[in-house]
Amino acid sequence: MNTEILPAPPGGGAAALLLRPLTTMLDALHRINYWTLVLLVTLMVVLVFAQVVARYLLNSSIDWADELSRLAFVWSIFLAIAMAIREHLHIGMVMLTERLPEAYRVMLARLMDGIAAGMMCIVCYESAVLAFDQWDEKLSSMNGSAAWFVMAIVVGAALSALELVRLAILGQSPSGEGAIE
């Protein structure tokens, strides 16, 4: 995991002062996201293992284990998307961009990150509307709202949008780091 503080933007001055709270906040959210993912994956492994043991060795079943492990899985997927964006592990097509001069690659990367951030904001908003509409639906085996599945999309999209805004402002390595060729 890369938890280092992001470098100040080039040129310093007002831009550096404006971006420092954003980078500090994103670093803190990144650490929270990382440890949340660790806990969610651990929870999934423990629940699935306990369910297998209960079902095949004890001839019994834990009623809520499947639903809770599925909820942890959904949350881990959407939180991992923001982690992949931050670590430059998301999929990218570089066949055209690798042939461009470095200045154009940086400009195009920033433009695409800005567009992707806007798309993530739309996904976040629409998911929040859907979660609000579904809040009264109950989970089948646990006491809770089925909207918690959709809330994973809301939180994951919000974190992804913030990371993409950071990349759009600060720029991204033009080397294609993390891109699949």
Automatic annotation (TrEMBL):
It is found in: Cell inner membrane. Its main location: membrane. It is a multi-pass membrane protein. The chain crosses the membrane at residues 34-56, 68-85, 106-125, 145-165. PANTHER family: 2,3-DIKETO-L-GULONATE TRAP TRANSPORTER SMALL PERMEASE PROTEIN YIAM. Belongs to the TRAP transporter small permease family. The complex comprises the extracytoplasmic solute receptor protein and the two transmembrane proteins. This is TRAP transporter small permease protein. It comes from Uliginosibacterium silvisoli.
